[in-house]
Write a structure and sequence with these properties.
141 residues, 4 helices, disordered N terminus, mainly alpha
Length: 141
């Protein structure tokens, strides 16, 4: 049985639409960039290129979770956004502590400095939105 069109998930309304659009842009850009790097220069920096691909997959999952209407979508969004925050903090720290292990940047290198630090801010905004919309949904119920 399909949801009624007016029963949209709280995460895909209002500011959530902008958040989903940003995630979709990052999903496309990170995945495309990693695909080109892996196809053309993989031997130069395999770990950073695979990490960029992982970031792209995480952005895809976050986009699906935030935009989804299925009961599992919110759990997917939580998992992807938490993983993303851990990833950007871990890779960001490691890329600064031991730059030799990162001969080329990943999406999350230097906490996303190559992308205007959006990769650092995005999961924080995503978590805030998930918390905010969860509270709104509980108040309405």
């Amino acid at each position: 049985m399909r949801d009624h069109p007016d029963q949209r998930p709280a995460t895909a309304t209002g500011p959530g639409r902008l958040l989903i659009a940003i995630y979709a842009i990052f999903a496309l850009s990170a995945t495309a960039r990693a695909g080109v790097q892996i196809a053309t220069r993989f031997s130069e920096a395999p770990v950073p290129y695979l990490l960029s691909l992982l970031a792209g997959v995480v952005y895809i999952l976050a986009t699906i979770g935030l935009a989804g209407r299925a009961p599992w979508a919110r759990r997917l969004a939580w998992g992807a956004v938490v993983f993303e925050l851990v990833g950007v903090l871990t890779v960001g720290t490691l890329s600064l502590v031991d730059a030799a292990d990162f001969p080329d940047d990943t999406v999350w290198s230097g906490f996303g400095r190559g992308y205007g630090f959006v990769p650092l801010v995005l999961p924080i905004a995503g978590l805030w939105w998930l918390i905010h919309t969860g509270r709104v949904a509980r108040k309405v119920s």
